[in-house]
């Protein structure tokens, strides 16, 4: 029953959200980019928190104080579940965009709001397109808007941490912004590990201290290792 209610709410809220699209378009037309970002964040955060509430899950988030008060950051998170996006939309205090898989671009309404939220869509099978996407995400960071990337590139559907894709943190180096590691624990239990049925779950989100990427290519590997170990160490605590 909880699963049915979840999908009914998801569908109805998406339809309801279309009422606010003209306002977002007006902000864009007037070149009020910051106002558009804050407005989109408000709509998305409200939607995301209600989705999580419907699952009956409890959220324990620690380390909010590690997020810089000013300036954009690149949030780098492990990826266990489709619920990771609403979790981060709902519980991070900054407006954020995502480096998201290109398949999400085909989903009506959701893809519209993702575009308004300065998300970019990456096709990892197309190297040139991937490079263009990373460059675009870097420019968004430079403009003052924080971004989220899942460097594993796909859901683990477990509490195991997969290998990071090479070059996945390049956009932080290009934009000169700090990297804030995020560890999500147990989100896969909400849906993926429960035969695709919603189950109330205790989810923990840990935000670690910022890591500053180096522009020097020689330090790329060490930056990736630092971020990987930060997330892996938090997962290993459970």
State the gist of this model.
42% of the residues lie in helices and 16% in strands. With 238 residues, the chain is of the alpha/beta class. It is globular and about 45 Å long.
Task: Itemize the secondary structure elements and their pairings.
Layout: H1 2-17, H2 21-29, H3 33-55, E1 58-62, E2 74-77, H4 84-91, E3 96-101, H5 110-116, E4 120-122, H6 127-142, E5 146-149, H7 170-175, E6 178-185, E7 202-207, E8 211-212, H8 220-235
Parallel strand pairs: 1-7, 2-5, 2-6, 3-4, 3-5
Antiparallel strand pairs: 6-7, 6-8
Task: Provide keyphrases for this structure.
alpha/beta, single chain, Glycerol-3-phosphate (1)-acyltransferase, 238 residues, 8 strands, 16% strand
Low-confidence stretches are none
Mean pLDDT: 92
CATH class: Alpha Beta
Helix/strand/pairing class, anyone?
Answer: alpha/beta
| Architecture per CATH nomenclature, i.e. the level-2 architecture | 3-Layer(aba) Sandwich
Number of helices: 8
Overall radius of gyration: 17 Å
What is the CATH homology-level superfamily? Glycerol-3-phosphate (1)-acyltransferase
Order of helices and strands: HHHEEHEHEHEHEEEH
The portion of residues forming beta strands comes to: 15-25%
Q: Domains counted in the coordinates: how many?
A: 1
């Amino acid at each position: 029953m909880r699963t049915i209610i979840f999908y009914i709410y998801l569908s109805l809220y998406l339809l309801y959200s279309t009422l606010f699209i003209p306002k977002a378009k007006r902000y864009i037309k007037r070149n009020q980019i910051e106002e558009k970002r804050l407005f989109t964040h408000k709509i998305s955060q409200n939607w995301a928190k209600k989705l999580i509430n419907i699952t009956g899950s409890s959220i324990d988030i620690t380390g909010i104080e590690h997020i810089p008060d000013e300036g954009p950051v690149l949030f780098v998170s492990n990826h266990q579940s489709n619920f990771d996006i609403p979790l981060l939309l709902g519980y991070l205090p900054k407006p954020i965009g995502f480096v998201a898989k290109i398949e999400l671009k085909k989903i009506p309404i959701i893809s519209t709001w993702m575009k308004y939220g300065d998300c970019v869509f990456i096709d990892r099978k197309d190297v040139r397109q991937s490079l263009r996407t990373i460059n675009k995400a870097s420019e968004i960071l430079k403009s003052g808007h924080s971004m989220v990337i899942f460097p594993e590139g796909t859901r683990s559907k477990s509490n195991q941490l997969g290998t990071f894709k090479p070059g996945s943190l390049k956009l932080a180096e290009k934009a000169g912004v700090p990297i804030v590691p995020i560890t999500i624990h147990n989100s896969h239990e909400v849906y993926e590990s429960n035969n695709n049925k919603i189950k109330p779950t205790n989810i923990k989100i840990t935000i670690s201290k910022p890591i500053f990427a180096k522009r020097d290519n020689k330090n790329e590997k060490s930056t990736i290792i630092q971020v990987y170990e930060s997330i892996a160490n938090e997962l290993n605590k459970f």
